[in-house]
């Protein structure tokens, strides 16, 4: 997993609530057996028509916006547990998603793939949307160490929460498996006492 | 100290606590399927490690399998490759596989309980969000991502933040023609798609206690649709009766000991929850969804809300545009193109019985295609034994072989663009049943009645009961 330190980037704003993982990557594109290549079909049915032509009014097809930060309205990533949603976002080039609310499983999947979910207040989210609307070239700065997200060049910022263990993993590029493997003795000791019916 | 059901089960599975509030939780059973496991097996191989406890893993092929001619090779190349990869991985690593052609094959959340693998007090995970289904037995069961599938393969554990607890109490009696599917759609419509985020839910109350295990599974299954990680119901005589004598149920003295332990799994009287909700079962009418998430549901006699009545008019407009519906519209009388009965929510034998009982001697409407996909080979076999197959065929339903099918449209079972499908599945997201498909979620009885009438109706009017004023 890649290390995450400071990210400063332009932004892709997607002002839609309750974006479910079936929109992020529809089920019919889950047939691959590797983690790569899902970016091609990210937001497939919003992004392309039936013939596979880009829909000009969808944000990823617009020349006005680009960058490695996706900003979406509340309850991002609800629905299916498919980690393919996180893989598709990473494969496309996103390194962080900003929203006022994330679904649990998506949040965990994102963190396990070096994609930082930044949860901000609804007010701050509106400020970001407004700033980007005014100036599509506006950058956002995400400082994980200090847990601060700010509108670059302006004195507008907000602190965000992250689990301390997960923060350490993101900063160092560690994953949970390395950690759990180091606890094998504890797990084996637990098993000796664990009665299952 | 008084504990909730969730806390009793969770506490028995804590291996250790870690700085930052995370806990290492031991997982008793791990179900895997073809779609979310291949990358995890690759991870295990790349690390050069084996499976930590292969005997705790059970595999089946369900998401991506055809529901026609399962005895023939899968025609779609990518689907075949994915299913073959599961078979090879299970062979390489020595995992029990109930694959295509096996008499126990089926949807993972149908076969676990029916084989007696799912038991009270367990922790169960699977790379599928509807793993919450198993919570009906008083287990902590929840969906995980593929990285976590790999973690469980490597260590039989997960690193987790303890969720908050919520209790939803439903007292009273459900009206005739109203089922557990209506109950859970009602709850989700009240709490919203994110109302349960961060919580593990316990369903309690007299209405829950009176439900069969199949009906309880339908409720726990859809917990994720309000954002909750899982849902659970305290085990009781109904639970024990269901498990008894199943293939992997404890036998003899083991059974007695197990029931004794299982009987201790309930929330203590003084236990506290982080959130509580109460509903009256009698208030619930047959439900139907009008929008593009499971929270957008109404009683079938109610009208679609207007912009003025909702918190987010933009979302409502986007959903109604997709669904081809108008604000404030009544859905009664609206013609339907397809009826799908199946999925891990409603494909068990009880669901098939409800449908068969209603359609017996009737015919589906000409404007409707009606497909029924049993949850497992055992359900299919049982339906045959009881003669349900003949009843359903004579009514014009197409009977398929087990799989997830048109619930998520990974295989050929897709609803065409713009057409309406009344479905017993769990998600009405845009494109869920195929690009442009318009899904309306309902109970199996409502689906059966609509299949016969060809349009949206109130099922209560067709079962010899008058609708209360």
Short description:
Chain A is an alpha/beta fold. Chain A is 32% helix and 16% strand.
Give the tags.
heterodimer, A: alpha/beta, 4-stranded antiparallel beta sheet, 4-stranded parallel beta sheet, 8 helices, 32% helix, B: 469 residues, Aconitase, domain 3, 5-stranded parallel beta sheet, 15 helices, 19 strands, globular, disordered C terminus
Overall number of structural domains of chain B:
2
Overall morphology of chain A: globular
The first-to-last residue Cα distance of chain A is 38 Å
- Strand numbers in spatial order across the main sheet of chain B: 5-4-3-6-7
Biggest sheet overview of chain B: 5 strands, parallel
The CATH architecture assignment of the largest domain in chain B turns out to be: 2-Layer Sandwich
Radius of gyration of chain A: 18 Å
Total number of strands of chain A: 8
Strands ordered across the widest β-sheet of chain A: 1-6-7-8
| Count of helical regions of chain B | 15
Unreliable segments of chain A (pLDDT under 50, ≥5 consecutive)?
none
The average pLDDT of chain B is 97
CATH fold-type name of the largest domain in chain B: Aconitase, domain 3
Number of DSSP-assigned strands of chain B: 19
Q: What is the level 1 CATH name of the largest domain in chain B?
A: Alpha Beta
User: How is the quaternary structure best described?
Assistant: heterodimer
Low-confidence stretches of chain B: 465-469
- What is the strand content of chain B? 15-25%
Main sheet makeup of chain A: 4 strands, antiparallel
